[in-house]
Each structure stands twice: as C-alpha cells, then as structure tokens.
Fold Peptidase M20 dimerisation domain-containing protein.
Amino acid sequence: MPVLFCKNILYNLPRSSISKITSSNLVVKRNISNMSSEVPQEFVKVFSKIDSLKPTFIDRLAHAVEIPAVSSDESLRPMVFKKAEFLVDELTKLGFTDIQKKDLGIQPPPVENPKLQLPPVVLSRYGSDPKKKTVLVYGHYDVQPANLSDGWDSEPFTLTVDEKKGLLKARGSTDDTGPLLGWLNVVQAYKESGVEFPVNLVTCFEGMEESGSLGLDAMIARESDSYFKGVDAVCISDNYWLGTKKPVLTYGLRGCNYYQVTINGPKADLHSGVFGGVIAEPMVDLMQILSTLVDSKGKILIKGIDEMVAPVTDKEKGLYEKIDFSVDELNAAAGSKTSLYQKKEDILMHRWRYPSLSIHGVEGAFYSQGAKTVIPAKVSGKFSIRTVPDMDSEKLTKLVVGHCNAAFEKLDSPNTCHAELIHDGNYWVSNPFNAQFTAAAKATKVVYGVEPDMTREGGSIPITLTFEEQLKTSVMLLPMGRGDDGAHSINEKLDISNYMNGMKIMAAYLKYYADSPEN
Ligand SMILES: C[C@H](N)C(=O)N[C@@H](Cc1c[nH]cn1)C(=O)O
Ligand SMILES: [Zn+2]
Ligand SMILES: [Zn+2]
C-alpha cells in the first residue's frame, strides 16, 4: 500500500485510489462507504481533520444523548434545560460568540403544570465578516420519549458504539442530536485544520420541536431584524434519506396537526366487577370515536379533507419515476411486509403529497402487562394528521372537532367529550434549483460520488416555512441519517459513516455556497 504525503497529512491509500496528483491541484480518489469520489484539494485538510477527530465527535454525541431531553414529558423538562446548557458549554469551548438562550415564556395549555417554562432557543454566531455570506443552521436538541421497556436492546439514553456494524445507537442519534452536533463538529474541524471558515454561521437550536415548536414562530418574527438580520440562507439537517444507500436533498415537508379527544366519565377509576355494565365507560366511547377517523387502508374518513388537497399534475408524476426507492426498502425500514402500496409512485405520493391520519395512544388508559380490571375514569385519545398543500389548518381543525363531536353525539352517552388541537405546524414545499441546493449537490457528489435524489419528507419540521417567510431566504433540508434509522422508534441509530460523511457534506456545502455567485 503506497503512503502519500500531502503537507502535514498522511494517507494510507490503496494503489487504485490515487487518481491524479499535480502540485497545484491535488486530487485524491478515496473510498468512502463503498463509493469512490474525488476529493478536491480545498477539502483534503478539513476532511482529514474530520476523520482524525472521529473519537472526539463520537464522545460529544455520547455526552449529549445521555441527557433525556424529552420535550413532551413535563417531568423531564429540567433535562431539556440541562441539554441547552450542555450546548452552551460546547459552543463556548469552540469559540462561538454572542451565545444567547432565548426565553420563550410559559407553555400554553393543554398542560398539567400551568407554570411550565418552555425550553430556551440557543442562538450563537461563528464569524461576523461582512464580506462573507451568512448561513443559519437550525436543529433541535429535544427528543422523543424512549424507555428500555419499549423494546430497546440497550439503554436508550446511553450511546452504544458498535464499530463492527458501524452504528451509533441512542435516542436522538439521528433525530436530531447527531446532525445538530455535526455543525459544531464542522466548525471544530475547520478551526483545527487551519482552514478559513467559509461563511458566517448562525445557530438556532430549539428544545420543543418534537412538541410542536411552541413559541418559536414568535421568537423568529421578533429576531428577524435583529439577531437574524443578514442571514442569506437557512439549512436544516433534521430528516433522513429516503432509503439506505442514496444520499438526498429535501425540498418539501408535510405539516402536522396534533389533536386529542377527551372523554370524561366517573370521578375516579372504578372496579369493573362492581360498575361494569352499570355505568357508561369513557374508554368504550373513545374507541368508537377513534374508529370513525380512518380505515385500515389508511383512508381518512373525516368529510371535507380530500377536497382541500391539491390535485396531482402530470409534471409532478414524472418526478416520482426518477427517485431511487422500492417497496422492499420500505418493508426493510419498517421491519415488516405491511405496506399498503406496492408501487414506488404510490408509496412516495402517500408519504409526501397526500395527508395521513395516525392514532398514537390513549392517556389515562391501563397499558401495562397483566390484567388490571379497571374502568378508567377519563381518557384522552391522541391522533395527528399530516397536512399537505393546500390544506388550511384552521379549516381542518373545524372539520376534525365537528367530526368528533358528531361521532360522540351518535353514542348517546352521558359522559362528556372534548376534542381539541394540541399543536399545528405548516407543510412546506420549495424550489430545489437554487444556489444552496446546487452547492449541497456538489458537496454530496464530492463525498459520495453520486448526485443526490431530490426528495420530499413525510415528517414535519414546523418552523421551516416560518424561516422562509420571516427571513425571506431559501431553506434547504440536508439530511444526515438513513431511512431505516428508527427515528421515533426503538433502537434509533445513526450509521457512523453517515455521521462522518454527513459532516464532510456540511463542510463542503458551506464552502461551495460561499463561493457561489448567487445567494
Ligand atoms: C422530521 C423531524 N425530525 C421530526 O421528527 N419532526 C416531528 C415534528 C413533530 C410535529 N409534531 C410533533 N412532532 C414529526 O414529524 O413528528
Ligand atoms: Zn427531528
Ligand atoms: Zn423527530
């Protein structure tokens, strides 16, 4: 194996990997995750530093994920605050400036603790050169709930580093702690490699994304002309590749309207032997209402929703054909053969451009192992609707609440029913042919040797449209993880290669975007 010396960098490369070396333009052909690509001179130092800092970057992730920052669990709210402090410490150590924790006030109802404080948004800057472009990077440090008893193979809030399988496993590894730290790591790599950082970076890290980004819209509006003044582009790394092999850039998201319907009955939980058959049971009413929302084929049964959805155009149909995906990849990511559709186009359209209704759970119900003979006194069914163009959130909520009330009326029950919106977040669709997307596509080609697919995302990042409208900039989603990462599920993971290569794409994207003649 030849050894190549390049300034202070030493590469051990297979003979076939060296393609062309000149003194002015060193190009090294490297093998990255089974795909070869050419690394231009300008990235050799930074990429090499990213490689050598791998243990530091994994360690940073390990420290971050051990804080159970579950935004939906009121009892864990102090942990969300603790994770914000962790980020402030890391940003400080790395030399970020103007670090601010923006207070978002008290969490609005419905909430158990009426004085529950919203977690802060962590703002910071790296560089303030008026000659450079300014890129705002958004990420979220809160996570979904996770318990070992849900079926995890290891403690969800302890990072498992499996070098053999090449995986980093923990809640938040891919959604979104790993990608968020990616930006900090990239700054460290530029700094320690002595390469000038190509842009001014602004961070906006929130702690309520998994719970509807409460309070963030107003903060962005307030800061659009102050902290965020001069931002040229917004980049969000908080979604996933469509499959497991091909990198993607994302130009669309579905929105999310989250609802709860609460049935109130007796004053307290009751013995089913004593009261069963004698009193009206809240759980029975709730199950009947939930069963009227959606059928087993995924068809939403609430009247008026289909009419709000933008019709499919011929031009749009052509887009799905070009995407690299199959039902087998969907089944592999789901760990089952339960897909409702077999054709790629149908799967993509139902993930990206049609609404869906999911039933998530019941608060107040018995759910443990064993056979408790209880009649729960008050139960709340939780469900959400993923929204798409041209659905209107307020109109949708009127339809949903009206539907639940009508379904309850039909039951002729003495209990009470209350349906309400918990939070909503907008859908977003953009144009993937601008300077940001071009820069990120070039960066992807350098790292992975392939052009990325342009995708939309079935999930939601409520704040995306707000950034676009308030800052009047282009927004791009640059996913780091794969479609089988198990975000929101058990055994959430991030492939080590995605973590490392994801940072290289971030690093190269910033440089290409900085050098682009357009904004
Ligand atoms: C795509 C992103 N990583 C994510 O998981 N977003 C959440 C946002 C949300 C909206 N309501 C509750 N959480 C999601 O799509 O579920
Ligand atoms: Zn996320
Ligand atoms: Zn999430």
Q: What stands out?
A: Confidence is low (pLDDT under 50) at residues 1-36. Residues 144, 175, 210, 487-488 surround zinc ion (ligand 3) (CB under 6 Å).
